[in-house]
């Protein structure tokens, strides 16, 4: 379980857990679960574009992740955020289906991004994950107070000197970065569970934001460690255990609230 070939997997799991725990806390607090579901799924056209163009999958994921953030933010300012998120998700998935139909090559990279492949994380990819994770965590911690105020109400945040629209864009960008970190490990289809499950349980632990955030990270770390260990022992995908564990954490959090 701790052989040399597993070291990258454990390091990737650590990065994913910390990033998802921090960003996921505000996803739950701000009611942004739909965006946290849509943006990871929006990596699909990025992977399809990478296969078609013969470029690194991370480049395609980053490009379409940014496009998704801009679309959700711009459309959400003129209407209901959930409608903007739904429209953006539909456009991204449709684009991905079109791009994938243009290539006749086996899209192993697309499969890995949809379902995760923790043993396929290279040292170079690990460095990129660390940078993206650090960026997401730094953005959220830098905006800790404005994001908390915005969760209560945009008018209150504006009255206290924060700029709700600007911080909303920054928060969406942090979700996209967190998705870019988690998708290679647990897959686009199950990243949502890792962001929402531990954070929901952590929020039930304490009403104090700092304590709840720390609990969210601790639960995400335990969940990710357990998922990797069970994957090693059973040869089942990490995403399977991460998704089931995330759902269990959410159910526990709801029971405690």
From TrEMBL:
Record Pfam families: ABC-3 (PF00950)
Protein name per UniProt: Putative ABC transporter permease protein
Gene Ontology CC annotation, any one: ATP-binding cassette (ABC) transporter complex
Any GO BP annotation: response to zinc ion
Family membership noted in the UniProt record: Belongs to the ABC-3 integral membrane protein family.
Organism encoding this protein: Acidiphilium multivorum (strain DSM 11245 / JCM 8867 / NBRC 100883 / AIU 301)
InterPro entries referenced in this protein's UniProt entry, alphabetically: ABC_BtuC-like (IPR037294), ABC_TroCD (IPR001626)
Localization annotation: Cell membrane; Membrane
Membrane topology field: Multi-pass membrane protein
Keywords from the named record: Membrane, Transmembrane, Transmembrane helix, Transport
């Amino acid at each position: 379980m701790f052989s040399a070939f597993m070291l990258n997997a454990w390091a990737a799991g650590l990065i994913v857990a910390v990033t998802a725990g921090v960003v996921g806390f505000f996803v739950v607090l701000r009611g942004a679960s739909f965006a946290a579901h849509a943006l990871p799924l929006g990596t699909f056209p990025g992977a399809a574009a990478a296969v078609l163009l013969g470029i690194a999958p991370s480049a395609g994921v980053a490009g379409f992740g940014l496009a998704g953030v801009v679309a959700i933010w711009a459309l959400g300012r003129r209407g209901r955020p959930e409608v903007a998120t739904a429209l953006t998700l539909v456009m991204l998935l449709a684009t991905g289906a079109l791009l994938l139909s243009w290539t006749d090559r086996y899209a192993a990279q697309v499969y890995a991004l949809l379902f995760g492949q923790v043993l396929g994380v290279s040292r170079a990819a690990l460095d990129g994950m660390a940078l993206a994770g650090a960026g997401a965590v730094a953005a959220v911690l830098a905006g800790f107070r404005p994001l908390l105020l915005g969760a209560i109400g945009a008018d209150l945040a504006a009255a206290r000197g924060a700029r709700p629209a600007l911080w909303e864009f920054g928060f969406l960008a942090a979700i996209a970065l967190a998705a870019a970190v988690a998708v290679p490990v647990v897959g686009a289809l199950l990243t949502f569970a890792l962001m929402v499950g531990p954070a929901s349980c952590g929020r039930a632990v304490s009403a104090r934001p700092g304590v709840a955030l720390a609990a969210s990270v601790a639960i995400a770390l335990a969940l990710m460690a357990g998922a990797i260990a069970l994957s090693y022992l059973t040869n089942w995908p990490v995403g399977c255990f991460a998704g089931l564990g995330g759902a269990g954490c959410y159910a526990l959090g709801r029971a405690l609230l």
